[in-house]
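Quick one:
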Amino acid sequence: MSKTTTTTLWRPTGPEELALVEASGWREWPPRLPEQPIFYPVLNEDYAIRIARDWNVPASGVGYVTRFEVESDFLTRYPVRQAGGETILELWVPAEELDEFNTHIVGTIDVVREFR
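Output:
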């Protein structure tokens, strides 16, 4: 039996979204809101830290950085988008595909940093 190859992704998040992740047993991301047509996981921790610290903290008083693994073969459908500098890399997952995306998460979604 071959081991599934995974890719590590990060997601900066605020307290409301994190509460929904916790309610799922740390297994899935909640559905997007109507004004959120895209789910944006990022490809490196440094970029996630910057968003959590510089955006989530001013917006909600706390910012979290989460880390999770997704089946690499599944992720090939989402091109890597460069949203700024060389390390500002993210995936754009359409909201209507998030349920399927969640089924390809391997293990749990873990909080690795917290900023206040």
